[in-house]
Amino acid sequence: MTEHHGQSDAERRHTEKMRKRQAAHNRIVAGKTIEKGLLIVHTGPGKGKTTAALGMVVRAIGHGKKVGVVQLVKGAMTTGEQAVFGAFPGQVEFKRMGEGFTWDTQDRARDIAAARAAWGEVERMIRDPSYDMVLADELNIVLRYDYLPLDEVLAVLAAKPPMQHIIVTGRNAPQALIDAADLVTEMILVKHPFRAGVKAQAGIEF
């Protein structure tokens, strides 16, 4: 193996390969000039949909953005995120408006009323251009149970301020929402400790 300027042939080949990849990447990035608010959907049976969305919320906070978070299904359990977001009262409005899943209340009319109230908060935030990002957590669950009319939800999402990002989470996202979205991620369940008898734990599930 020959040496050239302190580099082996393998090292020089690697350097040249990385240089070409960098140049190709830079050309691709240079061609992306559109800036717009995105409709983002996190769906699928795997864990991490809300967690990933809240990670985006944290990122937005770090950029000085104003964010609205409405949890449409999860009940009034204290979470780690609540404690963190409470430190940024001027940037984050965090509302837990769900009463748990439908099997907890066993009252469809009550569930629909709760969903309607929570959606009212989401809609208020979306119509306010001062919000840079709005997270509608578990909205897909509400839509799956027909607690809200899909056409109404899609119309509000379509009329959002041009630069506002909206994140919708929950398994079984309706196809019409997926079609309307700019970014869709499906979480796949490979393995979960709950199946092995491990309970939900602080810092992991809540």
Brief summary:
With 206 residues, the protein is of the alpha/beta class. The chain has helices at 9-30, 49-62, 80-85, 102-105, 108-126, 139-144, 150-158, 175-180, and strands spanning 3-4, 7-8, 39-43, 67-71, 92-96, 133-137, 165-169, 183-186.
Any overview of this molecule?
- This protein has 206 residues and is α/β, with parallel strands linked by helices.
- The protein folds into 2 domains: 1-33; 36-196, 3-Layer(aba) Sandwich (Rossmann fold), CATH 3.40.50.300.
- The protein contains 8 helices and 8 strands, in the order ββαβαβαβααβααβαβ.
- The chain has helices at 9-30, 49-62, 80-85, 102-105, 108-126, 139-144, 150-158, 175-180, and strands at residues 3-4, 7-8, 39-43, 67-71, 92-96, 133-137, 165-169, 183-186.
- The strands form 2 sheets. Strands 5-4-6-7-3-8 form a 6-stranded parallel sheet, sandwiched between helices.
- The model has no long low-confidence stretch (mean pLDDT 88).
